[in-house]
Each structure stands twice: as C-alpha cells, then as structure tokens.
Amino acid sequence: MALDCSASVATAQVTCSPAQPGGGALRDVIYGGQNVYVTMRSTNRVIADTFAMETTVQNLLPQPIGTTDGVTAHPDGVKVFFVLQPVATGGSGQIRIQNPDGYGMFTEAGQPFYRYTGVLATNAVSPARTWKFVLDPGVTTFRFQVNVAAPVPYPDGWVEVTPASVIMDFNESITVKAVVRTALGERAPVQSIQWSTSWPHGVFLAPQAGDTITRVWRAGLGSAIIKATSGARTGSMKVTARMMLGAVSRGAFGMDPSDSYVKLLMDGRPYFERSGREVWDGREMVPAGNGFTVALVSPADGTTWEERTFNTGGPDHDGAAMNALISYLEELWYGHVVMIAVADDAGLNVEGSCTLRSEPWVERGLKALEALGARQIRDYCFRDSWAMIALVGEGRARAEALARGAEAAVQSPFFHDVLSVP
C-alpha cells in the first residue's frame, strides 16, 4: 500500500495514511502502509515558494531493509519513490519536486525518488533527508503518494523457526515450531514444511506434524543446524550440545580413610569412582584413590581418554608420586579438558596441620596445579577435600572447590568448541 500524504502550505503540516495497493514487482520489496510496515515522519517549513520536509523513515518490518545479507548496506539503499507526484488539492498551480536523488522504474517509468543509505534494522529510524517542493503562488494544499522500495535478506519471505537457538544436554528433548512468513512478515498461507538436520547422528528429529517437530534430542557432543524449508522459503535454528562435567572429592578429615573417595561425572552420571584406600569388592582388591586422581576428556567429542591416580597421600618420602603427577600435568596438550580430585589426603601438608611440607616437590606440585588455574590449593590442609575442572592453556579453573569435613564438588559445562567460555 502506498503512503497517501497531504500537505498544507499555511500550517506547514503533512499527514500520511495508507492508500490503496499499487502494482509492480522487482527483487526489491515494494511496499507502503504507514505505521504498519513503515513510519515516515517529517519536520516541515515553508520558505518563499519552497515547501521543505526533513523526513525520516522507520522500518517496521520484522527483517532489516537496505541490505541483502542483514549486515552489509546495499548500494541501492532504501528508496522512497513517488507513485503519485504532487498535485494541488487546494488553490491552483503546479508543484515540482526540486531535489530528487534520481528517477527510476518501480511501478512505472520515470518515478522520482529519495535514497536513504545504510541498513535499517527492525524499528530503526533513518537519518533525516530534506525533500523540497517548489510551489506556484496559488497552491494552498497538495497531496502526493509514495512507496518504499528496499533490498531485504528475504524478498520471497522466510520460515521463522522457534526457538532460534538452543543449548541441549545429553538426551534432553525440545519441541520446535515453524511459521512461514511473507517478505512483509505476514503469515503466509499454510504450506508444507520439510525438516532436516546437519548432524543426523547427534541431533535427532522425531515424528513431524506439519509446522512442528514433536521432539528433538541430542546424543553426542557437537552442534547442528535444523533447517525448515517451504518452497523457496527457508529458516533454521542452531542446536549446541552441552556436556556437563563434574568432579567430587571427599578427603579423609573426620572419617576413616577407606570411606573417602573421588567421583567423576559426565552429564550428571558418575562414570568413575574410587575409594581413598584399597578395598575388597567381593571379587578383587579395588585400587586406592589416595592422593590426586586426574581424568582427561576429549575436547573433540567429549569421550574420556584416561583416569590416573597419583598416590601422593601415601608414604611419598622421596616425592616419586608427586614428581610423576607434575610431569604428567606439564605434558598435557593445550586444549585438554582435565578434572582433578583428591581422596584421603593430597600429601601437601605436615600430618594433622595446614603447614605445607618443606620438600621441593611440594612447591613444584603446587605451581603445576596453579598453572592449570588452581587458586585455592595453597589453602589445602591435611585430609581436606579439593576438586577442580580446567582447560589446559586457559590459566584459570573453570570450577574449583575446597572443603573440610565435607565434599568438595565442582561442575562445568563444555561445548564442542571448548575454548569458548560458556
């Protein structure tokens, strides 16, 4: 619909309202609809024979205008063109558009226009442009009609998918809906929608009913694009799979060392547990978790690589276990996800106290843990609980906890691109 505008010379006022729909179609979207799809406002003045309008354009479409990719301004800009050139409705005489930016073929040949450069997002308002009309002396009121011609990212319309993006945990499910929109953002007549996923082995689409996927769930670590297609119109959403890692430490302060433990969890489920002392499980002796237990997790797919326990809390008089831990930590590659937890005792302190042992490997061990991001380990006391999750190379722990006489539990989310901070 064009904007039908009427101007009064005496009051220098202009009012615009929707007119009847016009014809014409290019790859630019051509539209009007004052206060529906666009709002044009002006500050006006009359000087001698010239009626001047300082005119702005506000974009009310649910997609940006003046761009074909949503980011880069198109050189054509947003053009406001005259469907009906100014004609007198009061008095008599001619009206001439003094300063158009050019003439073009929109709904017919030779239509004058004003150009607004730059990208206008939804609800954004353009800088003002000065429109000038030269009036014959007898003109008291006049009218004109204008339309907007603008490049847009979706000239054929699009499929609106909700939610637009989502972070999902293991085996979590969601419902996804789609609405087919015209270029002006109106709901299009019901059409069939086809759904697809870029990662069919990790993000699954359950039975579909027209514009709805009744269930989407993930079974791996990664990301996927779910695409909805309806004829030439498309839309998509991004699914990012999140892996929740956890580590639990229970030092032996106030309890029997055999009752202390470490636990490692993935997506809330324990996958590794070990007591602070060697125990008999009815079939065999289960190795002790005394000291530091370290687990490595693949940054590529979230699988666990290995778990190793360094018995630093035992009779480590020559520092062999601590030195082995230090060497192990120093050889970790940048980007490794590492979980560390203590059972029974870490072997850092004089027995029964918070005083650090004086052996050189104790200080080296503290520095190796601090290089991974530990900030509380120097406050560790004999048989405390301590756990940490870190990403090698970040220089800070993703999560760290220290406790006395209780569990120290940490958890942290990781994504396929683990270097992105959640």
Structure report:
This protein is mainly beta and 422 residues long. The chain has helices at residues 320-330, 360-372, and strands spanning 3-8, 13-18, 29-31, 38-47, 50-59, 78-91, 95-97, 102-104, 111-116, 129-135, 139-150, 158-162, 165-168, 173-181, 194-197, 203-205, 208-209, 212-218, 223-230, 233-251, 261-266, 269-275, 279-280, 285-286, 291-297, 304-310, 337-344, 385-391, 397-403, 408-415. The strands form five sheets. Strands 13, 15, 19, 20, 21, 22, 25, 26, 27, 28, 29 and 30 form a twelve-stranded mixed β-sheet that branches. Strands 1, 2, 3, 6, 8, 9 and 11 form a seven-stranded antiparallel β-sheet that branches. Strand 19 and strand 20 form a beta hairpin. It is elongated and about 110 Å long.
Provide the fold topology.
Elements: E1 3-8, E2 13-18, E3 29-31, E4 38-47, E5 50-59, E6 78-91, E7 95-97, E8 102-104, E9 111-116, E10 129-135, E11 139-150, E12 158-162, E13 165-168, E14 173-181, E15 194-197, E16 203-205, E17 208-209, E18 212-218, E19 223-230, E20 233-251, E21 261-266, E22 269-275, E23 279-280, E24 285-286, E25 291-297, E26 304-310, H1 320-330, E27 337-344, H2 360-372, E28 385-391, E29 397-403, E30 408-415
Parallel strand pairs: 13-20, 20-27
Antiparallel strand pairs: 1-2, 1-11, 3-11, 4-5, 5-10, 6-9, 6-11, 7-10, 8-9, 12-14, 14-18, 15-19, 16-18, 17-18, 19-20, 20-21, 20-30, 21-22, 23-24, 25-26, 25-27, 27-28, 28-29
Helix pairs in contact: 1-2
